[in-house]
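Tokens for chain A. Residues wanted.
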């Protein structure tokens, strides 16, 4: 289930997303500095540093950051190290992310996200879902929402 406030924000591209007001703005936070707070877990530290690098929109070399963030996230979820993540682990999460795409299509319409959202919107949302997941919140599937944002970010950069 994807939480729904019932309120939408619409972007210039025509894409819509749930309202962000009151949720905080991780895309405005100095993520590279915040990463140090999670230094006891190298996977979370790495994810946050990757998210910070992805906010540098002048760089076109985003791909290793997206891949590393997803791998480190799956490693964290599976209580493994990055290099121990298997194709089976990835496939398990892709099955869940497919459900997230299905639920998003019901909420916003099919392919809404392909219309284009600001890149910082993906980082803001991904970071929020990361924090909610590692803090143990279960009000929605924050794990698959994190990966969804990473994939949508990569797609948007590739197709702008």
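Reply:
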């Amino acid at each position: 289930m994807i939480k729904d406030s019932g309120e939408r924000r619409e972007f210039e591209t025509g894409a819509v997303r749930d309202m962000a007001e009151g949720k905080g703005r991780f895309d405005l936070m100095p993520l590279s500095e915040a990463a140090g707070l999670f230094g006891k877990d190298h996977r979370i530290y790495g994810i946050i540093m990757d998210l910070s690098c992805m906010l540098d929109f002048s760089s076109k070399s985003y791909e290793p950051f997206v891949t590393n963030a997803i791998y480190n996230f799956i490693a964290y979820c599976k209580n493994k190290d990055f290099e121990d993540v298997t194709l089976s682990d990835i496939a398990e999460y892709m099955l869940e992310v497919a459900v997230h795409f299905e639920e998003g299509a019901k909420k916003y319409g099919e392919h809404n996200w392909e219309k284009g959202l600001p890149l910082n919107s993906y980082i803001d949302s991904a970071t929020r879902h990361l924090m909610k997941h590692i803090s143990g919140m279960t009000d929605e599937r924050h794990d698959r929402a994190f990966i969804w944002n990473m994939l949508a970010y990569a797609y948007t950069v590739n197709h702008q």
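The two ends are 29 Å apart (CA to CA). The chain has a mean pLDDT of 88.
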